[in-house]
Specification:
With 332 residues, the chain is mainly β. The protein is built from 2 helices and 22 strands. It binds beta-D-mannopyranose.
Length: 332
Amino acid sequence: MSVKIINGTSLPNIPWQDRPEGCKDVVWRASNNPVIPRDLLPTSNSIFNSAVVPFEDGFAGVFRVDDKARRMALHAGFSKDGVNWNLNEEKIEFVQADKSTEEANEWGYGYDPRVTWIEDRYWVTWCNAYDHKPTIGVGYTFDFKTFYQCENAFLPFNRNGVLFPRKVNDKYLMFSRPSDSGHTPFGDMYISQSPDMKYWGEHRIVMKPKLDWESTKIGAGPIPIETSEGWLIFYHGVLQSCNGFVYSFSAAILDIDEPWKVKYRCEEYLINPRETYECVGDVQNVTFPCATLCDADTGRIAIYYGCADTCVSMAFTTADEVIEYVKNHSSI
Ligand code: BMA
């Protein structure tokens, strides 16, 4: 391995499939996609755009579950192998981390969670309703049993809040994507900084839509992966076609100390909707990554992505291969 994973963990049990014979893509799909079907729970209309992390001797996660009344909620889930998942039938009922937020945090809806371990706990961010408007919810758990909710990070309207897995220059960092009340027809990725996970400021623009495949809007995806080449990020980009939005995803490499500086940005998508489960579902043509697992020893990366707002699939690559590809196809 030529690229080093920094501050990573050994994950000898990472779910993995070798690149299929004849496949030339730098990111390849799991042969058993979708790995999480829409009807895994008796009450689920769809399960998609979800986040997983290593936990105990296996994996745990926070899952977007829309129920058959089309309420959007978050559910905890567990897996021994990262592929076969058991989800709690009950949605996560957040405990208020601070009594003063009880009224402000009255539950409306939650979707598109991300999860990362920082220092001593698993932090969760998601798109959270505040005053019936989307913004970035923040919470944490130690055990995936009790979840605590903090103050929202930002004012509405905002989506795609994604934390960095450690402080940088003594500040917590979060991507977000300021938006509007509907199916936002614009969107750039920003980084905001915080000394305490509560007060967010020092906002920096990171990337704007640039190429045709992402020309309408872009948004952060999984938690950034720290490497010897910089922060490796996967992000989604949206093109507007005559039949609606098309959600693809790609990768970029950001400066380690000033991650609002883009070192390399792949000019092509890495995965776009083309398999039936990506093109057909509740919302056609969506591939939307919210999590990766990365084995620090081998650089193997397993990507979890939502498909057609209906189910969850997996794709694979390695840090070496994807970083080389991004560098060789970069346009910033
Ligand atoms: C975005 C979010 C995602 C969804 C996507 C496509 O605005 O709502 O959850 O996957 O639209 O519908």
